[in-house]
Design a protein that fits this description.
Elements (H helix, E strand, L loop, with lengths): L1 H13 L12 H4 L14 E9 L2 E10 L2 E9 L5 E8 L2 E9 L6 E2 L6 E3 L4 E7 L7 E2 L4
Antiparallel strand pairs: 1-2, 2-3, 3-6, 3-7, 4-5, 4-8, 8-9
Length: about 140
C-alpha cells in the first residue's frame, strides 16, 4: 500500500497543472455603448444622444432655439472627471465648455452655455473619468 501511495503522489505531482486563464478585461469598460437616453431625455429635447463607457455616462441634448439647433452636454463621470462639447465644421474640431466635475453627481454645461449647431456644423458631447481614463463621446449630430 505504501508503494501504491507513493506512485499515486508521484503521478499527481508530475501531471501538468492547468491554471485558470486570466480573466479578460471587461468589454463594457473597453468599449463605448450608445444606448437611447430614456429617462435622461428632457421634454425640450428634439434629439438626445447618450454614450456610456464603464462608469462614465454623457448625454448630448439638442433643442430648438429660434428655429436652430442648440446643444449642451450633461454627464456623470465622478470627481475630477471632465465634460465638454466638441463642434466640427469644415474639417476642424473645437473643444467647447470643458468643465471639471467637483463631485460624483451630474455635471451640466447648462442652458446658458448652449452651443449653436447650425447648417454645416456637427456637435457631440464627451466626458472622461479622472485623469482621462474611460473617455466616452456620443455620436456626432
Amino acid at each position: 500500500m505504501n508503494i501504491m501511495l507513493r506512485i499515486f503522489i508521484a503521478a499527481v505531482l508530475a501531471a501538468p497543472v492547468a491554471l485558470p486563464a486570466a480573466a479578460p478585461a471587461s468589454a463594457a469598460a473597453d468599449s463605448v455603448r450608445r444606448p437611447a437616453c430614456g429617462a435622461y431625455r428632457f421634454a425640450e429635447d428634439h434629439v438626445c444622444l447618450m454614450a456610456v463607457r464603464g462608469r462614465v455616462r454623457v448625454n448630448l441634448h439638442v433643442q430648438k432655439r429660434r428655429g436652430h439647433d442648440a446643444v449642451f452636454a450633461a454627464g456623470l463621470m465622478g470627481t475630477g472627471g471632465h465634460l465638454w462639447v466638441e463642434r466640427r465644421h469644415g474639417g476642424s474640431t473645437q473643444t467647447l465648455g470643458r468643465k471639471v466635475a467637483r463631485g460624483d453627481g451630474m455635471v451640466s454645461m447648462g442652458q446658458d452655455h448652449a452651443v449653436y449647431d447650425g447648417p454645416g456644423y456637427q456637435a457631440r458631447a464627451c466626458a472622461d473619468a479622472n485623469g482621462g481614463r474611460l473617455r466616452a463621446c456620443t455620436s456626432w449630430h
